[in-house]
């Protein structure tokens, strides 16, 4: 076998190894993604006609029960002056679900703002809205003009605090997930560069011919 063929085959093998490593890195990407919301009760944008009692957010991974970083605030109806708040601002963790008890007041659009710590240690938060259209038989809560703050959680604003995983239809940033994407991209680039360098070095080597 000629030296040229040997170099060609070694180069192809190196390139193949680099591509396999890149694919394995990309396949590992889902495991690096942070926790995210998979559902809420009431559903975001839903029309509710009976007192929901329990309001909840369910995520794709387990949550930590850290009272100092956990809370849920319900406010509405939209446009009320001053805005009214319902429930005590506290929330309880059950596996991947965060929930609180609350009775709603006058008809209109309501906003739920939540915050909790995910099993990966990231604080995640978000907000969603739904419409409350009770019939005449439904009991209505009076609400409070003062935001309810549970264990120091910053739930006094209708704006969700910074988050590592945004909920569907919710506000928030994706800084944590963006950093994962950048890390994966850097790893893939490093594999490709290493493969190209290997090919360059092999291409410059001249095969030795026997005397």
UniProtKB/TrEMBL annotation:
Top-rank taxon, per record: Bacteria
Instruction: State what protein this is by name.
Output: CopC domain-containing protein
Where in this protein does the record put region Disordered?
Answer: 138-172
Residue ranges occupied by any CopC domain in the UniProt entry:
34-131
Q: Where are the transmembrane segments?
A: 181-202
Q: Which GO terms describe its biological process?
A: response to copper ion
Extent of Polar residues compositional bias:
145-161
Origin organism is Glaciibacter psychrotolerans
Which region is the signal sequence?
1-33
Alphabetized, the UniProt keywords read: Copper, Membrane, Signal, Transmembrane, Transmembrane helix
One cellular component (GO) term of this entry: periplasmic space
Q: Name one GO molecular function term.
A: copper ion binding
């Amino acid at each position: 076998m000629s030296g040229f063929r040997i170099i060609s085959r070694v180069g192809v093998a190196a390139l193949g190894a680099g591509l396999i490593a890149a694919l394995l890195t990309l396949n590992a990407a889902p495991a690096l993604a942070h926790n995210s919301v998979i559902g809420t009760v009431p559903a975001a944008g839903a029309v509710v006609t009976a007192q929901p009692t329990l309001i909840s957010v369910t995520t794709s991974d387990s949550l930590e029960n850290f009272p100092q970083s956990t809370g849920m605030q319900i406010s509405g109806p939209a446009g009320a002056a001053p805005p009214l708040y319902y429930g005590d601002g506290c929330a309880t963790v059950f596996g991947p679900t965060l929930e609180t008890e609350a009775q709603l007041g006058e008809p209109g659009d309501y906003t739920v703002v939540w915050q909790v710590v995910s099993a990966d240690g990231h604080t995640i938060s978000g907000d969603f809205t739904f419409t409350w259209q009770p019939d005449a038989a439904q009991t209505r809560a009076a609400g409070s003009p003062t935001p309810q703050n549970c264990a120091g959680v910053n739930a006094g604003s209708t704006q969700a605090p910074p988050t590592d995983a945004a909920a569907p239809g919710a506000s928030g940033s994706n800084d944590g997930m963006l950093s994962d994407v950048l890390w994966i991209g850097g790893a893939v680039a490093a594999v490709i560069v290493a493969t190209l360098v290997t090919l360059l070095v092999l291409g410059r080597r001249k095969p030795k011919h026997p005397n």
